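PROTEIN DESIGN WORKSHEET
SECTION A - STRUCTURE
LENGTH: 338
TOKENS:
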């Protein structure tokens, strides 16, 4: 067992690595460090960036690299026991590689790896110092990810590290023609096909073709659908009816899907991550999530039958922001390698 008193969390994203270091008591030491990730250039190129991040972390903390007792690493791809199972946004040579073993050759430090949503879930748990129960994270972004932390802070990853693919549970919502929307995973009717940036682009494209929106400002521009969808959050913050309609639909369907997850895991606390956590209309969005949840969830998952004033499932916005995953992995390293 390591006698070292510091632990690093390295969050590998498609464009950047965010890194943090904590001591044995869980206190962050020094600021968060951010460097380019270079994931498309292969894992060896990213390893050089990880080492650069570690050097800056240790310099800021006033310690040597040998004082790091363990590293928590997360990647934007499915993985199991340190091996990447899918390419996602990574370069080709990541797939099938035991990243933990290869990085350990460079650093000679114990390493544990998981995916980015799992890491963020642990980060949100670690931030909530007074919360001792379970925590379910759902995080709408380009796709829809999730993570589940058991009471006491242990992450549930599943037998193959593939648990909590929350974006790919089925929901019974159809397009105007009665068809189920196709998901990027190849299936139809997935929750992610309704709640994600990809879904927002599809729905916007459909709505803009309808007569009631022919005079909408987004129809007066030659911008791509990706560029138009990027403007929706700002438009919604200024009361635009179409934008609000789209986000309301996403919130309701997200809540509907969460009801089945709650029926399975009964976490008590559901944390909503993603960029909407910082939107000016986030309180409205959370209300739309609760509406969808109420439409599907049994009453017992909403309020206690003994004390009707007590919520049995609470909803909160994520608090960790972009740092949640790196914080989560630092705490994971502390738990595993202390």
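SECTION B - SEQUENCE
RESIDUE ASSIGNMENT:
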């Amino acid at each position: 067992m390591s006698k070292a008193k510091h632990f690093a969390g390295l969050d590998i994203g498609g464009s950047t690595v965010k890194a943090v270091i904590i001591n044995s008591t869980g206190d962050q030491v020094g600021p968060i460090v951010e460097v380019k990730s270079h994931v498309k250039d292969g894992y060896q190129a990213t390893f050089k960036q990880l080492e650069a991040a570690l050097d800056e972390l240790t310099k800021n903390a006033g310690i040597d690299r040998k004082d790091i007792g363990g590293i928590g690493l997360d990647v934007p791809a499915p993985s199991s026991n340190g091996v990447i199972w899918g390419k996602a946004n990574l370069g080709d040579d990541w797939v099938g590689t035991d990243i933990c073993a290869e990085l350990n050759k460079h650093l000679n430090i114990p390493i544990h790896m998981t995916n980015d949503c799992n890491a963020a879930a642990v980060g949100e748990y670690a931030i909530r110092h007074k919360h001792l129960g379970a925590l379910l994270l759902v995080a709408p972004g380009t796709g829809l990810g999730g993570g589940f932390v058991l009471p006491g802070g242990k992450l549930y990853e599943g037998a193959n590290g593939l648990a909590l693919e929350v974006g790919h549970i089925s929901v019974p919502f159809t397009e105007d023609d009665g068809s189920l929307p196709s998901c990027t995973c190849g299936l139809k009717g997935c929750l992610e096909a309704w709640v994600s940036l990809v879904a927002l682009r599809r729905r916007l494209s459909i709505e803009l073709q309808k007569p009631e929106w022919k005079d909408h400002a987004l129809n007066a521009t030659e911008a791509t659908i990706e560029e138009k969808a990027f403007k929706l959050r700002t438009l919604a913050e200024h009361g635009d009816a179409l934008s609000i309609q789209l986000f309301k639909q996403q919130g309701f369907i997200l809540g509907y899907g969460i009801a089945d997850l709650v029926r399975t895991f009964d976490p008590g606390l559901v944390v909503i991550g993603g960029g909407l956590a910082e939107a000016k209309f986030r309180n409205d969005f959370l209300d739309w999530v609760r509406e969808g949840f109420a439409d599907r969830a049994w009453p017992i998952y909403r309020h206690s039958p003994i004390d009707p004033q007590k919520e049995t499932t609470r909803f909160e916005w994520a608090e960790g922001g972009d740092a949640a995953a790196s914080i989560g992995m630092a705490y994971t390293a502390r738990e595993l390698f202390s």
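SECTION C - NOTES
The chain has a mean pLDDT of 94.
The domain at 6-128+322-337 is CATH 3.30.420.40 (Nucleotidyltransferase; domain 5).
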